[in-house]
């Protein structure tokens, strides 16, 4: 059956906007043709079900149902495509990262092909037992041959990756590396803050975020405020300078040899501070 209608418009536009909605009845359980279903689903996957419904002059609920029915097969197709791409890469770089489902309680772990810009899989948990179980249950993961793996500095990730890919270069990602150093600065800030007068304590607490970014990125007024914070404590200034040294080392090391020498100097600078938060950060970095 063929249904056609035209939009109310001038004669020229009427020719341009003549729209046909084709609906085939091919059986008692199949209302729409495979071609119509395929075209509608493809539009919905590329945009939204509502947009596809408007384009096809179909009910949004119908398109939504078609979309939901097509998702499992589309997910399987894209997943296979991503894994095939990862397996074929000669310079594969994997990314391993966890994220909170319920912060402080429940975490999942994502596995990414960073060069291919795809997510390969998502597994429940981030503890070593869960990671090892995943590798045992998914031989396709262990069969990958990554040149490098980018991850945070969590011990579970380091152990897991060294077991699965002993030849891969392990790279600590920028966000987490800086996070450990900044966390140390803020821990020292809190300990210093508790020893200050009420007025100084309030100032330091209100502007504590100025301690985090590189000083070069701050506007002039913020630099003046930062200097006021650092004047409250020699220890706070010392830890902040240690943090700044790390940023410079991370940004400007031109090659491996210079980076290795700079890292040794930075560790020595931290050891001389003698604060527990700094020592914990150094321990994590060295591992």
Put the structure in a nutshell.
With 287 residues, the protein is α/β, with parallel strands linked by helices.
What's the helix and strand layout?
Layout: E1 2-5, H1 11-16, E2 19-22, H2 34-46, H3 49-56, H4 60-88, E3 93-102, E4 106-113, E5 118-124, H5 128-137, H6 139-142, E6 148-151, H7 155-164, E7 169-172, H8 174-193, H9 198-206, H10 220-230, H11 234-252, H12 256-271, H13 276-286
Parallel strand pairs: 3-6, 6-7
Antiparallel strand pairs: 1-2, 3-4, 4-5
Helix pairs in contact: 2-3, 2-4, 3-4, 5-7, 8-11, 8-13, 11-12
Extended strand count: 7
The helix/strand order is EHEHHHEEEHHEHEHHHHHH
* Low-confidence runs: 1-28
Largest sheet descriptor: 5 strands, mixed
- Give the tally of structural domains: 3
The number of distinct helices, counting runs of at least 4 residues, comes to 13
